[in-house]
Design a protein that fits this description.
single chain; 257 residues; alpha/beta; Rossmann fold; 2 domains; 6-stranded mixed β-sheet; 3-stranded antiparallel β-sheet; 8 helices; 38% helix
């Protein structure tokens, strides 16, 4: 069963300079437990599509369902957690306090809040850091705290908008490994926006290649890599072949423009 289903999806923004076609005729199915990366040039609609899934943007044509209902209904049912490009942690709250915020808003009992906070801190390897403040943590640790906050209410879907884009390559590699391990442990369905071809290929079961505006899907690549992926898999012929196909899809999108 498809968890996320888009058919003929269009989104046009009306601006002072005229209409901007952010998404055009997007057809895509995302199944339960898949890790799907969206890659393409800036302005191709990757983040816009993610925001449509999260009911943060309203499509102007076509259909989009999340768990068989509208994105708005899915949002009200707390179907997803969302991780933004910046960690977005409140500096006056501890790490535990930041993770607690959605649980407070949703009205979880205090004891249940504590239990969930402890569980997600363990999940992202931040056990023992709950009483620290964001400024006491590295950028990578702050992003892990942001992921913990998105996981705290145990939604089945995790939407991630370039969460590691601002981090250096060594930290990014480490967090990619940790994210794969977290995905394996939780079985979440993950939608992940990135500009990095190696990141997309390393993480994903499916890679969605998008063209420059108007954002269209130029290729959907089903990964043939095994679920267990050490970092050195990136040196394998299979990995390099998939990365080459992604690059070709990106190039084709520019040619078609």
């Amino acid at each position: 069963m498809s968890v996320i289903e888009a058919r003929g999806l269009n989104l046009t923004f009306q601006t002072n300079d005229g209409p901007v076609h952010a998404l055009k005729d997007v057809d895509l199915s995302i199944g339960q437990g898949e890790f799907v990366s969206f890659i393409g040039p800036s302005g191709c609609g990757k983040t816009t599509f993610l925001r449509c899934i999260a009911a943060l943007e309203q499509p102007t044509g076509g259909t989009l369902t999340v768990n068989g209902v509208s994105p708005e209904e899915a949002r009200q049912a707390r179907a997803y957690g969302y991780v933004f490009q910046a960690a977005g942690l409140y500096p006056w709250r501890t790490i535990a306090g930041n993770i607690r915020l959605p649980l407070e808003i949703m009205g979880f009992p205090r004891a249940e809040q504590e239990k969930r906070i402890d569980a997600v801190l363990q999940l992202v390897d931040l056990a023992g850091f709950g009483k620290k403040y964001p400024w006491q943590l590295s950028g990578g640790m702050q992003q892990r705290a942001s992921i913990a906050r998105a996981l705290a209410f145990d939604a089945d879907i995790l939407l991630m908008d370039e969460p590691f884009g601002a981090l250096d390559e060594i930290v990014r590699d480490h967090l990619n490994e940790q994210l794969l391990a977290l995905w394996a442990r939780t079985g979440k369905t993950i939608g992940f926006v990135t500009h990095s071809i190696p990141e997309a290929v390393y993480l994903s079961t499916k890679i969605v290649v998008m063209s420059p505006r108007p954002g269209r899907i130029t290729d959907v690549i089903e990964s043939t890599l095994p679920r267990e992926r050490p970092l050195d898999i990136r040196d394998s012929a299979e990995f390099i072949a998939i990365a080459h196909r992604v690059r070709e899809g990106l190039r084709a999108g520019h040619v078609d423009e």
